[in-house]
């Protein structure tokens, strides 16, 4: 495992992601940013946001110096507003660890422009699914869309005791994404709280909604 400026990651996975360099930009939906309405990072040179506490000192020196992409941010804003959701550009927002933590490991070159998208306060799954559909054209425009989160995010119950709940929810999630029909997939995601161990895996759904 190699150290990537304070983060450790698997070299094999990073190699499989090298084709990302052919992308025009990365659009990351982070579970660590929520606003009243959807928001899009529009800074040409995003700063770093160390939105955690109690970690080793070196984790507050991590840098991910990728440029932003105001032009792509405006395109994202237009797409989301076209789906009926008020959206604003945020020229001050920097990279939180929902963005820099995974990208520093799997794409350390930091030479592809990156922009972040917020969640919408209230966590309505239907709204977030609708925005995902609205953003779909970006895939054909050279933008890689990254939903940054976890299938299990219960900070009070990490460890061996969490295995049963984590496994149950993860199996449901994989079946929903891989084997369910498109219509059933949407229904299951909207009604995700009915899944096995749903609220055990996600006491708050901020790390699920980026999906």
TrEMBL record:
UniProt keyword list: Dioxygenase, Metal-binding, Oxidoreductase, Zinc
InterPro entries: Extradiol_dOase_DODA, Xdiol_dOase_suB
Domain of life: Bacteria
Membrane-traversing stretches: none
Any matching Pfam family: LigB
GO molecular function annotation: ferrous iron binding; oxidoreductase activity, acting on single donors with incorporation of molecular oxygen, incorporation of two atoms of oxygen; zinc ion binding
Official protein name in the record: Dioxygenase
Family indicated by similarity: Belongs to the DODA-type extradiol aromatic ring-opening dioxygenase family.
Secretion signal span: none
Species in which this protein is naturally found: Candidatus Propionivibrio dominans
Domain Extradiol ring-cleavage dioxygenase class III enzyme subunit B: residue ranges: 28-210
High-level lineage: Bacteria, Pseudomonadati, Pseudomonadota, Betaproteobacteria, Rhodocyclales
Cofactor dependency: Zn(2+)
Keyword RNA-binding: no
UniProt xrefs under CDD domains: 45_DOPA_Dioxygenase (cd07363)
